[in-house]
Amino acid sequence: MTHATPEDAGAACDLYLPPQGGHDELNAPGRGVRAHWREFIDTFSALSPEEITRRWDLGQTLLRDNGVTYNIHGDRAGLDRPWRLDPLPVILPAAEWSRLSAAIAQRAGLLETILADLYSRHALIGDGLIPPGLLYANPAFLRPCHGWLPPGGRYLHIYAADLARGTDGCWRVMSDHTEVPSGTGYALENRTIVSRVLPEIHRALPVERLGPFFETVRRGLLALSPRRTEQPRVVLMSSGPFTETFFEHAFLARQLGITLVQAEDLTVRDNAVFLKTLTGLQRVDVIVRRSGSEWC
């Protein structure tokens, strides 16, 4: 999303110019403001430019106070950049979001099916749908895992996609993220700040809740525990403060109620992983890796 200033936001209703050669999110051709934007526009237009500026100053303060940063270059000098949040949200109608989320879920299911085949029967290669070299020459292919069924029978536990809308109004997937997809923590923090900066708009619109997603993730992680115990220990392993999305690592660990660790916090004894604590070693049941495989 592009970054807008409070002045841009204040003039948006009166000085709005549709994108040239692109899809107009706000206005329908020849019909004015789209229906799902009208509640927002009516409420937002009632705010004075001074009030908009005051509220966005509050948003910037909240971003700084909450330590929301992104180190885009993994800069070890500690030059974290403040997270940039657009004061104007993107609004999608419920029906469109329902279709979009169903399509993303279908795509995630397809990737899961492909992974399961590549690590078992190789039917896709046998049928000529995937060239053998594309798999066997890929350094990310784990040959020792061929024929191994992961706990729960699933290979892909979390998936994210970068989306863009074309000039025809259709959504397209620009890239898939299957290893350590980021963005969920920032999305929740964005939602929290917007709800404080624009509370009346947040209350007026039927905003989709994010809480159920995080609860589903938490339950899924607990279910992966190989031990039958009431309190499985789940840890989120980060590369540390110099990682570009370290803020999100800490945020997710807190949101999911799991322990944030680095590699040096763990040790292996008798073919099991343990967390080093002041009271001794504690058995680890599930590790959520947030470091790319090239760092492992």
From TrEMBL:
Domain Circularly permuted ATP-grasp type per the UniProt entry, residue ranges: 89-296
PANTHER family attached to this UniProt entry: BLR2978 PROTEIN (PTHR34595:SF2), BLR5612 PROTEIN (PTHR34595)
Protein name (record): Circularly permuted ATP-grasp type 2 domain-containing protein
